[in-house]
Predict the structure.
Amino acid sequence: MDRPVIAMTMGDAAGIGPELIAKVLSQREIYESCLPFVVGDPRVMREIGEVVGADLRFRAIECLSGARFAWPDVDVLCPTGARVEHLSWGRVHSAMGKTAALCLRKAFEMAMACVVQGVVSAPLNKEAFHLAGYQYLDELAYLADLTGSRETFILGVMRSVWTVAVAGHVPFRDIVGLVKRDRILRYVVNIHEVLEKVGFSGPRIAVAALNVHAGEGGLFGREEIDEIEPAIQEARKRGICVEGPVPADAVFVRALAGDFEGVVCMYHDQANIARKLQPRQEGATLFMGLPVACGTTAHGTAFDKAGRGIADPGGLEAALRYTVTLS
């Protein structure tokens, strides 16, 4: 096929995920760039389709060979055990966490069978996920375990700036122990390769400092001297255009002004505070290092908006667009 097959998983059915999918797939032009289908409960999709007034027909399929990929029909494949018996919008429930996990599992089983070229996940709720018995820090750790993927990482996209964090979903006290030259170098190489793949020629990358004022020559910490600078020097030897350590309070000012296409941050919130200050409809989160690219929103399940038809689908649409590009 000339267009990638993209599995769109329903996420937490009690959140805004089903609504986001219905709104995104209401756009006929989506089918010009990819062949999307939904992994989830057809009944839930039909119910939210009525709420948002989507001019779509959600049709249940038993396997991917039964998909038509013909708008306004939307193919919906429901994994075994993933039917939603009692839907209550905006509530944390272990059953919804289980359904979201089963949908992701099914999507990546198809990815590993090479019948799906990308996955887009509507947001899941980590509390519901854990209540369902999935003891992973996040969905990427779950997917890495499912697929046997060892070098996974998270990319954030905001406007024209791409980000990656050396330390992800870990307690704050553990961050310093992860700021090591080999690990920093790996993330510089990873983001450089992705930026080239999506079309940036000679991408410019900034590496953020860990300590205030980039450590002030060791006065406020030696991580910049002992770990970050050596990683930058090695990256330059490999032909990567990289600058740093750039003080964290300045790095995104410069990046958003056009100085850099990529920013390697030292920890999760160093990247995500900047990302979430940008318009949500322009940002996405990408799970990399899996058998196929996987995109999701930069926001959560928004239980306060669930089932009301008022959620903005821009973030999921951006996730789909980037996933298609990487596919």
User: Anything to note?
Assistant: Residues 160-275 form a domain with the Isopropylmalate Dehydrogenase fold (CATH 3.40.718.10). DSSP finds twelve helices and twelve strands in the chain.
